[in-house]
Amino acid sequence: MTKLTTHNEGEDPEMARTLRAIYAAPIGEPYWNDLEARIMGRITEVDLGWWAELDRWVRPALVAAAVLVLAASVAMFRARQVETETAYENILTPSPVPVETTIRPTLEGDREASLRDVVGHKERSNGRP
Fold it and tell me: Exposure string (b/e) for 78-114, b if CB count within 10 Å is 16 or more?
């Protein structure tokens, strides 16, 4: 296994000095000021706002919204059409229950049953007591 150290034991001192000179940080303020100016200049050139990403989605979003509105309109029209058809069918089809019972509910309870018997008895006897 390789031994990881910052200084190799078989290090070439001349090579180490050369590499340190190459990779050493520049000395002096002008370099750092210039580097900062270049970085800040590049940042101001690039639009980093979240809205810049939305520009790519404007056209697909509008198409999707139009399709959604169209689908909702068709669904609403169809629901209204079905509702109208159902209303016409309810009006035009004859009801299985006689109209008399739908208009006047049947009499219920003891008093109403007695009254119905009396009235029904008179009708059966054709007015004879």
Answer: eeeeeeeeeeeeeeeeeeeeeeeeeeeeeeeeeeeee
